[in-house]
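Design a sequence for this backbone.
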């Protein structure tokens, strides 16, 4: 099959437009996660995710995130009020709910945590987050 020249010439251009849109989308979701973190989480977990010794568990290099990726969405939406172990230390202070955040915002926030603060954990898909949120008590 012979592909007409103008269409062939358009391929590289389309390729770069695709690349550009892909990047924009990536930075937008990453940026939303970061903004939401700054607004709703950093007052307790600190801007650098280190938490506060004895009071607020860390998100930086947190083993809890690696062990419970499917629970992150629920803890963001509904908070938590029970004993929790993070990086070998025990915490037991209530974390408040964030009922105003949409599923999409919780998705971006979750993936921000999974891939920042020295965590390099697999991201969750939007479908996984929606399922995760159906399991919250
Ligand atoms: C008022 C302080 C406060 C705010 C604001 C807050 N948290 Fe928490 N967070 C806590 C406390 C305290 C715990 C431990 C809860 C427990 O003892 O059960 C916790 C636990 C967690 C955990 C599980 C433990 C860990 O360190 O991995 C995650 C994940 C988490 N918070 C994420 C967030 C995110 C994301 C936000 C912003 C949407 C947020 N938190 C906002 C206080 C807070």
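Sequence:
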């Amino acid at each position: 099959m012979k592909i007409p020249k103008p269409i062939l010439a358009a391929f590289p251009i389309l390729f770069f437009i695709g690349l550009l849109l892909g990047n924009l989308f990536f930075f937008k979701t990453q940026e939303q996660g970061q903004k939401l973190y700054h607004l709703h989480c950093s007052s307790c977990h600190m801007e650098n995710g280190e938490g506060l010794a004895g009071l607020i568990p860390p998100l930086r290099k947190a083993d809890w995130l690696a062990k419970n990726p499917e629970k992150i969405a629920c803890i963001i939406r509904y908070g938590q009020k029970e004993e929790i172990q993070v990086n070998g230390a025990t915490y037991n202070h209530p974390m408040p709910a964030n009922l105003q955040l949409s599923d999409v915002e919780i998705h971006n926030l979750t993936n921000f945590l999974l891939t920042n603060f020295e965590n390099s954990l697999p991201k969750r898909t939007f479908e996984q987050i929606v399922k995760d949120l159906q399991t919250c008590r």
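Strands lie at 84-86, 89-91.
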